User: Fold these one by one.
Assistant:
Number 1:
Amino acid sequence: MIVVLAPGFLTTVQDEGRRGYRAFGMPWAGAMDRFAFASANLLAGNPPGAAALEMTLSGGSFRFEEAVYVALCGAEMGAALEGAPAGNWVAFPVASGATLSFGPAALGCRTYLAVHGGIDVPVVLGSRSTYVRAGVGGVGGRALVVGDILRIGPAPAAGRLPPRRSLPGPLVPSCGGEARLRVLAGPQEEMFAPDGIDTFFSSAYTVTGRNDRMGYRLEGPAVRHKAGADILTDALAPGAVQVPGDGMPIVMMADCQTSGGYAKIGTVIGPDLRLLAQSRSGDTVHFLRCPEEEAVTALRGERAAYAVIKERFPGVG
Amino acid sequence: MGAVRMLVAGEQGLVVEFGNAIDPAVNARVHRLARALAARGLEGVLETVPTYRSLLVLFDPLVLTRERLASEVERLLAAPEAGEASGAGRNTVELPVLYGGEFGPDLDFVARHNGLSAEEVVAIHSSSAYLVYMLGFTPGFPYLGGMSSRLATPRLSSPRGKVPSGSVGIAGSQAGVYPLESPGGWRLIGRTPLRLFDMDAERPFLLAPGDVVRFRPVDEEEYWAYLQVEEIRAFERRGR
């Protein structure tokens, strides 16, 4: 069991997301930085999609009531095990009764704490992910609060995991700072004026304070439409870049609603969306036009990285 | 019927667009393709999301290329669907509604706005068959078409902070039902005791895209009876 001594700014249980119900208006939710999330699970000896804790901006403090094996990946939040620096992109055993604490992230936004065996909360519509807006999944459909007690799932490889292991440097991605996001144009690129499209792909945008698990509102040079910004409500999925009438892009994220009525100039490619998930108010974002082939190659590269991590760090994943 | 367009929505998204209007015939093509794709069971298709006039097909490009998916879609569009003429696959759901009073605080406004009595609003509202064009906004929220133009009423100028779940509303010429308590600006004319979204139920969503909804006026006694049954069911599920 894990006792939440302090929840941090916003900590939720997340897994790969609640797939298959978008037709019913149910967002996926799930980890915002899927690479850090999957890496944490693989390092912890879990399947890559096991439920873990997603901490935001400032991490929490957790006491373990049983001996566990944990992994931390994502933004550097100064993790400390019983007061001693614990590192990042690492996995290690934690003795029963020990406390693992996190502080604020100096750079980046989200850190995953995976526990061998996974966080055991009820599965709702096939997923343990928390979707706060509808009160679904995780712990009571909400962010963690002080005093919450989390159960840990069965830990089949517990005895076989090494004392400490960390992700090799070349596999550790950047977290936070300037984000360069590759974008596939469409589906409504034709609704934008040619100079509006140029503006979008050549300007620097700033992450505003209105950024959360649903979407990131950006600010910068206005992206001009040809006639209007409104379309007949159609489907939205994470990565979609909506541009309302004010010309300021909104990038949809894991919790985004399933439909929307603003023209979408493009879609941030899946492997790059984590870069935005690690950015915060004031960070700079650039959009780079990307051919489809490159997007598919990037996805192949991401999957290959998981395969490498899995091979180097055996577990049950 | 216009030409079908295939649009790119990221490396994992294909949008099949059938038109640009809220039109039952266009929407029927969307649902027909969704059913055909489900029946085809292509490996690599992750999920489909029907909307008024388009179907978003989410796929894994490392399993199924866009080219292959697009050609499969074209093939399915060209093939006639068995049983389509008889309206197969269309499910009708009746929603009991307690109209007016505290359950439908805007019923009188809707009546005045349209020069009708409250009774006439109820009679008109409950005499149409409504098409579930799509679900969205919140889990289980149906965008319903088919409301009589005699009931069209603009949204509230300032949305309510809390609309109770089950509220039956009107926004312009659209009709809808709130599955969850949420903020909202629709005019509320009644409330259904049925749960449109219940995450613990075997069928968590009462309505599916393409369904037909009918509203049936009930009195308070029947409303509370329905509500009681819903609560007993929910209690039993929690106890399992």
Number 2:
Amino acid sequence: MSNSTQPYITAINSIANELPGNNLSWLQNTRNNALKNFETLGFPNQKNEAWKYTKTNVFGKKQFSLCEKPCVALLKEDISHLRDDQYLNLVFINGYFTPQLSDKNTEEGLILTNLQQMLCDSSETIQPFLSQYSDIKNQSFNALNTAYMNDGSYIKIQNNQVIKKPIQLIYLTTQQSTPAMTQPRNLIIAEPNSQATIIENYATFGESEHFTNSLTEIITQENSSVEHIKIQQECSKAYHIASISTYQHKDSRFTSHSFVFDGKLTRNEINSVFAEEGCECTLNGLYLVSGQQHVDHQTSIEHVKPNGTSKQTYKGILADRSRAVFNGRVKVHKNAQKSFSEQTNDNLLLSEHAEIDTKPQLEIYADDVKCAHGATVGQLNPEEIFYLQARGIGYKNAKELLTVAFANDMINKIKVETLQKMLQQKLSNCCTTEEI
Amino acid sequence: MLNISNLHASIGDKTILKGLNLEVKAGEVHAIMGPNGSGKSTLANVLSGRPGYEITQGSITYKDKNLIELEPEIRARDGIFLAFQYPVEIPGVSNIYMLKAAYNAKRKHLGLPELDAMDFLVLIREKMKLVEMDEKFIHRSINEGFSGGEKKRNEILQMALLEPDLAILDETDSGLDIDALQIVASGVNQLKSPDRAVILITHYQRLLDYIVPDYVHVLSGGQIVKSGDKSLALELEDKGYGWIKEQNSSSSQVGA
């Protein structure tokens, strides 16, 4: 047992009796196993290849405790920058579901509720799915989340249903007096032929140190389609570890967009398993970091069955002494013939002190496949800057314009118009405030 | 309007312009011709403020100001326009966005109110007619995937919009077929006015059939070695640049 994990284990043990569904033996088993794994694994260190460039010693040092329930009542107006009436919003403050800030589900064929409710009322519905798709055995942050499992969202899109309204999960952490953490947990099930867009939006009120460790499991059943958008805009003192595990059935489509605008340390792990034929997985990402921010994307796509398509496009803009890591792994199993896979990671370095470590990994065991990968690291092109200057556009402005242009196509992939506008605004703010 | 005196300019440790003198008055069209490597493009680059050139001697005054001290964007806002020999492709920035930003930067510089999107669209549509450009081009990324001719027409569109006091065309005619050349020429001719001046840098006499210069200068070895009227261009076409070189070397021998 390592010293760094002990305070977390003690804390979990002390609240174990209060956790929702603590009377269910299957859930108790899941939690206990997860806790044991977490104890054995400890926080990953840099000897672990997947954590080579991202340090986790802060979690041992800071000893984040669970966030208190918020005592100040927030109004919808207070979070108008996050909420959008065109979406179905589910709002969590400090990890606790907040019904007065959330929307009632108006969509037919959609079950949208908080996880705690499900654990208390209809645990048998979720038992076959919960914690079945994420790696609890080898991933200590997943194990930690599962041991704590308290609240989050449950989304089920029923057979043949197309949900027009985007569903937005807002995870907001308020000002904390001591380093505090939340452990959001989401379970998303898209039944056959269904379709939905789901946004996970992480933000902070104030500027206090906090830690978010989220875990999302997504099951896309036959011929369903899920578009998932994750926005990380927590404060510059936030530590954010997130894991998304997708399990794809026949002919299903999964698209993920990851936007990282802020946070001291952000790590996004996205895994998808093509359990049946004809799956399609598109992973897009855009990260903008400055100061001493650190962002790490780890993706893994398992082409287990034939005729699968995976596409990954990640772009990064790094200023000052910031650092980014991209590790994209694609494994094409022996039977997964006619697989198509491509991945790119393009980075714009705005400072000579910024650093990117990018590593595409292709493991191919089938012989009839088409796979490609590539990564670029570059600076703004002085010819382009001069061209704009020669038309009267100022030097600083020209650089901003070109920086935005580099990133813009990632935002243009978002089809939800209001969200696209919000992201564009966010991008342009980042590009003007960062000393570029 | 523009007065260049004894200009010496170098790039790296290579001196390219070696004592160039040129005076351009409002209302005039000057053609600058010369063999490859004579310094034609360097002159255009130095006038527009491209980084990387060092001016070691001499002076450039534009509208009675020391041009050398000014940033490229200030020169542009103050009426200098360079049509690039090789226009740059800028993926992700739409043509119309740049055009509007450029136009409003100039308006602001002149103390005029900026134009809103609607008014600007009306204006740019009118200018597009001049260069016979389809509207879809202004919504595309700057020069991205444009043919050589389309790129040059896009330069002329920008020039028509910004209405510069001093337009410098750096081999805008190179690589153009005759139809595109005529469009470029008519764009320049419509810009001509008693308040404006044009410097045409060209390798070929052909352009001067469509834009008639008041003066023709021959640049060689970093200096203007011969000046004349439009007949000089025809003479060059006839005899080639070798003739200038010979004449120049014999005259310098005589001088010695």
